[in-house]
């Protein structure tokens, strides 16, 4: 009590002169230094702000206590690594939903298991995560929901709202399924539907997307968002809505169109856009709900933007959505094959990504919204593993990925430097010091790879020793140098 009121008062008076009593927190991002948007660009108090991001979705769990399945030693090591590579943004989960009964394929333990029933230890992990990011000058996108089942997400709300109805899981990674390594609980596993309904992906998304017109599910999700946003950080006393470490509240990871017409595959420019898709009003309601609670932080949707121009513009051209998001997944969308070493395979991926980035930059400018490439990834040279015990060992090279990432960084940076809509990149996903060869499931059945618990571990991980991290660092240096030379101070002093 005294601590909190003292801290609030101290923050109010400490803007100009740091209070000695706060020395342990004095390197936090300053209390008024919110990222804001001006002329298609992000700005902080020190000027133009480019997002050198990385996905680090498990931060809240890694930052929680050992008895909650966390590992603070690992977290601090990895955050120091990220800061040393020039990372200034992470995209993290700010929520995970459990169930009355244990559910497979998802983050565990979850932040909450029923409306109002929170795991305070996980919440304290989120507090710790935000604090440690802040002292390293790293800001966050806080993802509040999920189309996919790996954090609970839409499907869990629908299940709660329909008398705990059974979630029709699609085939997902089961680490304890055959083939098993000799030491129990160290992998490998397989995509399996054992023990759960064998659902095609469409059946799963139909179930999850019924949140779009299920008022009870929507209300639950809003009540939860309200609780997260109004959380007071137990480490540094900051109210989440008053913490500039939180750049963005994101509605959900990859919400999908519910009623697509003319859908032709995992990636498609929809031939017949459906203006009546139930996704649109849902996203609109959530965006205004979040904006109302936090006028100084930004709001984004989390859309992949794979559905083409109509969907991109319709979702993002909303007064409560501050910038557009894009994700590009060449293997998942059938453009790239991780077992194919031929140069045409890689070239196809590069061409696709480059066309996708050009399209979305144009669309962003047309609606006057910046665009953030907040997910992209590529597997290692996994053709090197054909015939080995596991396709995703860390021993394969990263040659293709490094070429592909380099071309993405160049395309996005060129776009940014030449006045395009792009404001940064955020590859998927930091696995840091974790490796599949040494993985051991913890008491909560988790390993915290860069890959979420419904996918093969080691697929898209970026390891601390990968050459890819040096490429990330190089482009961060490049953009910092460019900003120093070119930011005439237009953004300075604002905010
Ligand atoms: C932040 O400041 C508060 C108030 O002085 C203090 O209790 C807390 O321990 C500090 N946290 C850290 C991690 O320095
Ligand atoms: C935590 O991570 C460290 C590496 O930083 C590792 O040595 C240790 O075994 C991990 N602890 C647990 C409980 O997993
Ligand atoms: C809810 O589920 C329980 C257990 O499956 C069942 O007994 C009950 O009848 C259901 N209630 C409704 C309203 O469907
Ligand atoms: C995972 O695999 C094990 C071993 O085959 C099986 O017992 C379990 O039911 C599976 N779990 C799920 C959720 O598929
Ligand atoms: C880019 O947009 C054009 C025009 O809508 C479309 O034909 C093309 O498929 C798009 N390419 C990608 C990769 O999005």
TrEMBL record:
Reaction(s) catalysed (UniProt annotation): Random hydrolysis of (1->4)-beta-D-mannosidic linkages in mannans, galactomannans and glucomannans
Keywords: Glycosidase, Hydrolase, Signal
Claim: tRNA-binding is one of the keywords in the record: no
Segments forming domain Glycoside hydrolase family: 33-480
Gene3D superfamilies assigned to the protein according to its UniProt record, in alphabetical order: Glycosidases
Molecular function GO labels: mannan endo-1,4-beta-mannosidase activity
Family: Belongs to the glycosyl hydrolase 5 (cellulase A) family.
UniProt name for this protein: mannan endo-1,4-beta-mannosidase
Organism listed in the record: Sporormia fimetaria CBS 119925
